[in-house]
Records
---
Amino acid sequence: MPSRVPPGQFETKAFPVLQSGRIHDELNAHNWDLEVYGEIEKPQKWNFEQLQALPHSNVQVDIHCVTTWSKLDTKWRGILFTDLVKIIKPTKKAKFVVMECEGGHTTSLPLEEMLKPNVMIADAYDGQPLEAKHGGPVRALVPHKYFYKSAKWLRKLKFVEKDEPGFWEVRGYSNTADPWQEERYS
C-alpha cells in the first residue's frame, strides 16, 4: 500500500498552529460573513447563520503543511465547493478563485482545483466548531494542496479570469503547492 505521507513530510498526531501575523480571535458567529463575487451569475453575502443553512457535508482527509508535517484522517464539516458553485454559478470567464481573508491574507487556485473532491468551506473540525487558532469560524479546506492554500479566517471568494498570486506565493512559495511533487517554493 502506498504511503499517505508525501515525500519530505512526517506524520504528526498534533495539529500545529502556524500563521503569519496574529490569530483573528475577534471573529465569531455573530460578526463574521462571507462575500462571494466576481465572475459569477449570483453574487452572495452570507452571515454565519445563513451559511449554516446551506447543504453541509463531512469529509475525512489527510492534510499536509509546507513546513513538513502531515496529519492523517482529519475530520471536517462544511459546504463542499462543488455544492457552492451550484448556488453562485460561475461564468465562463471564471478560471481562478481568490480566497480573501481577515487581515489581508490571500491565496488563489484554478477553479478546476477547487472543484476536486473534498474541497470545502469548513466551519467545523473534529466534531466541534472551528477554533480561531485553526482559522475559524470559517476557513477553506483544500486537502490535495499544501495547507497554506487552505485559507484561514475566510471572508471573501472572488472568481476571476486571471490568476492573482497571494500572500505566500508572492514571497516565493509555490503557486501550485502539490505536496506529492514537493512543490514548496517557486
Note: The chain has a mean pLDDT of 95.
---
Amino acid sequence: MSKPNMSTDLIKLKSTHLPCEPDHGKISFRRILPARAGVSRNGDSMAYDIVLENGSVYIGGHLVPADVYVKDGVIAACQRRGEREHAEVGESIDVSGKIVVPGAIDTHTHTREPGYTHKEDFFTSSQAAAAGGYTTIIDMPNVEPPTDTVELFEKKRELAAGKSIVDWGHWVAGTRPDRIQAFAEAGVTGFKIFQVSGAYPHDPRLALNDEGDLMASFRAIADTGLPCLVHPFNQSLFERFHKEAMDRGEKPDGILFSRIYTTEEIWHTAVNTLLALQSITGVRLQLLHTHSAGSIELIRRAKERGQRVTAEADPKYYHYTLRELRELGPRIIPGGFVTEDAARVDAIFQALRDGTIDNIGSDHAPHTVEELEVAKTDAWQAHLGSAQLEWVYGLILTDVANDKHSLRRAVELLSEAPAKLAGVWPRKGLIAPGMDADLNVIDLDEEYTVTEDRVYSKVGISGYLGRQFKGRVKMTFRRGELIAKDGEVIGRAGTGRYIGSHPQ
C-alpha cells in the first residue's frame, strides 16, 4: 500500500459539508456560511472592509473553496465560492491558489523587555512575529527585573501597549504562592516556573526545584484556573553530569552542553515529579521543551488517566543537527539536541501527530553574537537561545511537505491549541463568523532558501541560514489589518491588544 501524502490530505477535502468540531458539535455551512455575502444574520445590508477571495479556507478541519469577509476586525462571513452575490467591499484581495488559515499564536516568546533591550524589545519581537505569521505572542518573565510583582507586570504591559504590532499576553512568575491571587486579579495570562536554574537566561529568581515549594505554588495557581507553564529540568542531575564531564577533561563547548542538556534522565525524572504534583493539586499544567522519549510516554499516560496536562515542543530540539552546531556556531546555540537519535526524533513526531504534544512554541530567545560566541569555549557561561519567530512557521510547513504530519495538525499545533491554552479559543485560532480576523494566507508549494537579507529581530541572525524550506506565509492579518506581506512587515507599533486573563 502506498504511503498517504499528508501534505495534501486536506487539499483533497474540497468538502461541501464540514466535519464535526470537537468543541462546538456539528457545524454546517448553513451556520458558518451565510446564504448571501452582504447580508448579516439579522437580514440587514452590510458593507465589508475586506474580502479574501478565490482561496481555499481552513474551516473545521477541511479546506473549503470560500471567500472570507471581514468587518471591524472580525470575520463577518465565510461565503462558499460561486454562491455569493455582489456586496459592498472596501478591498478585495485575490488569494487564488493559496490557503487561508488562522493566524499563529506563540505561547513562548522572550521579548527581552525590560532590561535586555540591546537584543530585543516588544516592537522588534512583534515585527519578527508578524513577519513569521504570528498574530499573537505571549512573553516570558525572565527579564530584568523579572516579572514577579503586580507592579512590574503592569509596567511591562504598558511598555507592550505602546510598541506591539501583534496582540499579546504575559506569563508571570509563579514562584511565590502569596502573590498568585493578586496576579490573577490584575489580569495576567498565566504563570511560568523554571526548574532549570543557575544563571541568566535561567534566572534562579524564577526557579523552583523543591517539591514542597512546587506543590504550594501549584495549589495557589490551581485556585485561579489559569495555566502554569513549567520548564522541566533535573538541575541536580545536570550539575552531576557536568562535573563528571569536567573530571574527564572534556571541553565545555556547545557540543558537550547540548549532549548533557538533553540527557533523557534529566527531563523525564523532572516530568515524572511534575505530573505527580499535578495529580495532587489539579493545576492546569503545561510542560515546555518536550523532546525526551521518556517524558513523552509519561505525558501520554497522564492524559490517558485524565490529568489536566498539555505539552509543548519547540522545533530547534528536533531540527538542528550537530553538524549545523559546528558549522553555524552561535546562530543555533543551544542546538544539535536530539537529531542524531533517530528513534527519539520519531517519538517526537509521533507525539506531534497523535496529540500527546499539543502545541508548537517558538522559544524565540534572541541573544547577540557576542553573547553566544562565549559558548565556543564555555557554554556554561554563555547566554543560550536564538531568534525563532521569523522561521518556525516555514519550518513546520516544510515538515508538512515532508509528510511528517498533516496541514490540519500544523494548524492545531500553531493556532488552535495555543489559543485554548491562553483561554482565547474560539475568538482566536478559528475561522468562523464573529471571531477575530487573525488570518494567514499561505502557499504550500513555494520553495526558498533561508537568508539573513531581512531579519527583524535585533540580533540579525538566523539559525536556519541556508536551509531549504517549502511552504511560506504570504500575508498575515491581525484583526483584519494586513501587518505583513511576503515577509515585509507593514504593521504599526502600538496597534496590538492585550489578550487578557481567561481562567478555565
Note: The first strand starts at residue 20 and ends at 21.
---
Amino acid sequence: MKSRRTLVREVLHRGLLSSAAEVEAALADNRVRVNGAVVSNAASLVAPGDAVHVAPMANRFVGRGGIKLEGALQHFGIHVGHQYCLDIGASTGGFTDCLLQHGAAHVVAVDVGRGQLHQKMLTHAAVTSLESQHISQLSPEGLRSHWGPGHHGLAQIVVTDVSFTSLAQLVPHIVSLSCNGAELVLLVKPQFEADRNDVPVGGIVVDPQVRQGAVDRVAEAVNAAGCHVHGQYESPISGAGGNIEFFLWATVHTDE
C-alpha cells in the first residue's frame, strides 16, 4: 500500500494548486473536498486513490485577503488609482490583486515566505515580487529602485497583512518607506498584538476588550511615528481560525 500524504502535500503533488499558501486559502474557504466531503484540516492524510477536488475561488481575487482589503478601501473611501503601493505580507497576493483591480500604478509585494505569490501576480507587469525578505530588510533606497521609470519616490499607499509578529513594532520602519501624505491601511490581528496572557490556548481572541486593546496598541505606535489615525474598521471576513481582525487607516506626516 502506497503511503499517504498530508492534504497540503497531496494537493501540490497532483498539481491542483501551485503553493502551500494557495492550499491554505482554499481550505479556509472550504473549497477542498476529499471523496466528496469538505476537509479543512491541512494535516489530514490522503491516500493516492482518494478523490481530491479543489473548487474555483468564489471571489474575483487570487486570495481571500482581497475581500478584506476591498471592504476597507470602500469603508474608508480610499482611492488607489495611479498610486504606487507597498504590500507587506503579500502571501498569495489577495491585497496586491485588490490594489491592481482598483487602479494601482504599481505594487511592490514583500513576503518572508517563498513560492506563495499567485502566478497571476508574479507575471503581472505592474507587480514587483520580493520573496524571502522581511520588510525590515527593505530600505527606502531599495524600495525606490523597484518602481520602474514612472516613480522615484517612496510608497504612496501601504497595506499590511503580517502574522506571527507585532505590527506595532514594524510601524516605524513602515513609515520610513512611505512618502509624506501616504495612506496606511494596516490589518491588525489581535492574537499577535495582545499580551500573551490575554490570548487563550488556540490563539482565538474572544474578549472584545482584548481585541480593542490590540488595535489601540497599533494605533499608538502609528501616532508615535508621526502619523494621524483616521479610524478603524472590522474586516468583513474573519482571519485564520475565526479570529476577528481590524483595519486601521492612517496618513503619514513626515518628509521623505
Note: The first helix runs from residue 7 to 13.
